[in-house]
Automatic annotation (TrEMBL):
This is Thioesterase. Belongs to the thioesterase family. SUPFAM superfamilies: alpha/beta-Hydrolases. Gene3D superfamilies: alpha/beta hydrolase.
Length: 251
């Protein structure tokens, strides 16, 4: 993959060349790299944040959408090949957590073990639900997105903006909902799962099953809130990430 292509995928809002760790951040369905700008600002310069920009949104809006976790994982793994010279941890929220798991699998297959996988707001890969919101009408899909309160409601009320973002949302939902956990080696890196106690997309029990997917250590942290609990608890989440990356023995 060329350097220009890698730059299409990865945003470094606050380059931190001296940081001992990097954190790869993978957005939720319908999300974009800019969601993690505050994370990058808060963690820099101690941790360098790499925020992934999926095709079909913002500055990549003209590019074809990808509606497969497997294809996204293949391309993200190629894009970050030049960023594995330092310990790399992965943070993914919702769909991004599933994608993070598959990226971590691919990295480990190549001989690069992530420093940790922080899986947020998502049930474990083996805990399947038969969800088909991506097959619904525009109104049905948008109703589900609005119910999760993860996107600015004013933006979703703007018809022009909705027409722009809906194809990307539908493609991401299709990727997340058609994903099936494939047999094969799980991870050896630590997994740290985080979930809201009232999340309609992932129960505490479903999140606890992440433990089955690593031979390394596992921790689960439950926060008050729904699917986007992290919007209200970002200081505690950032502290958790920093503490665990800077104290490897505690992961």
């Amino acid at each position: 993959m060329t350097a220009s292509t890698a730059e299409d995928w990865v945003r470094r809002f606050h380059p931190a060349p001296e940081a001992p760790h990097r954190l790869l951040c993978l957005p939720h369905a319908g999300g974009s790299a800019s969601y993690f700008f505050p994370v990058s600002r808060a963690l820099s310069p101690g941790i360098e944040v790499l925020a992934v920009q999926y095709p079909g949104r913002q500055d990549r809006r003209a590019e074809p959408l990808i509606d497969s976790i497997e294809e996204l994982a293949d391309q993200v793994t190629e894009a970050i090949d030049g960023f594995t010279d330092r310990p790399l941890a992965i943070f993914g929220h919702s769909m991004g957590a599933t994608l993070g798991f598959e990226v971590a699998r691919r990295l480990e297959k190549r001989g690069t073990v992530p420093a940790a996988l922080f899986a947020s707001g998502r049930r474990a890969p083996s805990r399947h639900r038969d969800e088909r919101f991506h097959e619904g009408t525009d109104d049905e899909l948008l109703a589900n997105v609005r119910s999760l309160a993860g996107t600015d409601q004013a933006l979703l009320g703007d018809d022009e903006i909705v027409r722009m973002v809906l194809p990307a949302i539908r493609a991401d939902y299709r990727a997340a909902e058609t994903y099936r956990y494939p047999d094969g080696p799980d991870l050896t890196c630590p997994i740290f799962a985080m979930v809201g106690d009232d999340d309609p997309k992932a129960t505490v029990d479903e999140a606890s099953s992440w433990e089955r997917h690593t031979s390394g250590s596992f921790e689960l942290k439950v926060f008050p809130g729904g699917h986007f609990y992290l919007n209200e608890h970002s200081p505690a989440i950032l502290d958790t990430i920093s503490t665990h990356l800077n104290s490897p023995s505690r992961i």
